[in-house]
Specification:
- It is a single chain.
- The protein has a single domain (about 10-235), classed as Rossmann fold, CATH 3.40.50.720.
- The protein is built from seven helices and seven strands.
- The protein has helices spanning about 20-30, 45-55, 65-80, 105-130, 155-175, 195-200, 210-225, and strands spanning about 10-15, 35-40, 60, 85-90, 135-140, 175-185, 230-235.
- The longest helix is centred in the middle third of the chain and has 28 residues, at about 105-130.
- Bound molecules: NADP nicotinamide-adenine-dinucleotide phosphate (NAP).
- NADP nicotinamide-adenine-dinucleotide phosphate (NAP) binds near residues 94, 142 and 184.
């Protein structure tokens, strides 16, 4: 069902919103008139800074690798902020391992946040959305879910999982909730990251992306017609086309 720009209520939760890309998303959504809730895990000071950039928006702490924490988070949000119409699953982990050396704990560390948490956050949000007027979900995946990276096999698998989860949930939650994914390429969210140089060189537009460009794509899906669902939008300067 449509939730067009300008209608109220427009309550959105952005996970991992204290810093970097998540911060850019939450600030952009606030600027565009959303009521934003900021989730963080360890970065409380940065979450408070983000909150002050967003009209003293509420902040909520949870370790998303644990499903009971996810359930508590969504209860607190419903009770203290109000039921959600919008969710952006942005929080994630990123590690580098030779696949011959990866341990079970390394695998679980990535998948608990990057994939399992995305599923259970979608489930909790969808319960609130279907009690109301429906909603919109955006899952942040990655170019690594589309193209293979040898030293990030575990991360690539988790993000490919996010893309398929997005497609499956788009079917499962239709017609009341849309589920789409934004797949960032190389995004320079803070200081120059030396290991990104080779990928920037290979990027057809010859530069890294900006967090604000990812936020634009998220805003597009959150305000798009309900006929757009189950889609993946790469924000990658054309790198996925190579
Ligand atoms: N940066 C890039 O170039 C790039 C490229 C492709 C895809 N992406 C995707 O874009 C999104 C944002 O990227 P980013 O680089 O800005 O992310 P990031 O800084 O690596 O992580 C974002 C936030 O995730 C939260 N987080 C991690 N583990 C958590 C846990 N167990 N429970 C709750 N929160 C947890 C952290 O919150 P706290 O700090 O509060 O602990 C962190 O600030 C991610 O999904 C990432 O995979 C990024």
């Amino acid at each position: 069902m449509p939730l067009p720009d300008g209608e109220r209520p427009r309550r959105v939760l952005v996970t991992g919103a204290a810093k970097r890309i998540g911060r850019a998303i939450v600030v952009e959504l606030f600027r565009r008139g959303f009521q934003v809730a900021i989730h963080y895990n360890h970065s409380r000071d940065e979450a408070l800074e983000a909150a002050s950039e967003c009209g003293n928006a509420p902040i909520f702490q949870a370790d998303l690798s644990r499903v009971p924490e996810i359930r508590r988070l969504f209860r607190e949000i419903r009770d203290e902020f109000g039921p959600l119409q919008f969710l952006v699953n942005n929080a994630a982990r990123f590690t580098r391992f030779d696949p011959l050396k990866i341990e079970e704990s390394d695998w679980d560390d990535i998948h608990s946040v990057n994939l399992k948490a995305v599923f259970f956050c979608c489930q909790e949000a969808a319960r609130q959305m279907t009690d109301g007027e429906g909603g919109r979900i955006v899952n942040i995946s990655s170019l690594g879910g589309i193209r293979p990276w040898a030293e990030h096999a575990h991360y690539c698998a988790s993000k490919a999982g996010v893309i398929m989860l997005t497609r499956a949930l788009a079917k499962a939650f239709a017609p009341r909730i849309t589920v789409n994914s934004v797949a960032p390429g190389v995004i320079l969210a803070s200081e120059a990251e030396p290991e990104a140089a080779a990928m920037i060189k290979a990027t057809p537009v010859k530069r890294a992306g900006k967090p604000e460009e990812v936020a634009e794509a998220v805003h597009f899906f959150l305000t798009a017609p309900d006929f757009i669902t189950g889609q993946v939008l790469a924000v990658d300067g054309g790198l996925s086309q190579r």
